[in-house]
Amino acid sequence: xxxxxxxxxxxxxxxxxxxxxxxxxxxxxxxxEIQDMSHDNHGTLAMQLPEGWSMEDMQACMIAGTxxxxxxxxxKGVGQWKGKNTMWMGxxxxxxxxxxxxxxxxxxxxxxxxxxxxxxxxxxxPFHGIGYNGFDNVSQRFVSSWFxxxxxxxxxGEGDLSADGKTLTWQYRYNCPxxxxxxxxxxxxxxxxxxxxxxxxxxxxxxSGKEYKMMEISxxxxxx
Length: 224
Fold this sequence. Notes:
The chain is of the alpha+beta class. Helices cover 16% and strands 50% of the residues.
């Protein structure tokens, strides 16, 4: 992935300043001030909008960065969960069972969740994986990244919620180590109650190309 670092940083700074810009009473002005937040509090920093930008553009940045109903839905999963795993190495192969623990925490003031799994993979040893999930207000899709101790690559996914709010379907992209090319994986999350959910993961067999269920995890919230 290639990007212009200067442009990226400037855009991020402007988005961060949008809260101040959009709350000022000088709504028609293209110049605004923010208080210096350093401990010695020595003055103010003037910021002028780039050529062609309007206060409406800054408002759009603020809206894009503000948590909404989908973020609130993600926060319902925060807590500790216990999972029972069933895994298949390939189409038609016998299943392997194990257990896992999952801790979901809120990050960045309710904008993202950190999803951390620990457990054992039969025949492969301890497993530790971390994912970060969010909802992109601009694309109106759920977004995710994942990495674990059994790979050196990261997976990136986008997801859509069903109309009834009970099923979230993800499409993840990763590099297949066997086929040596990009591949996709489908993950379906079923929310069966506030305290139970099921994760199903499907992938294509690198030899036959046939899709098969790789894993199913039945999860129950742990109550203290």
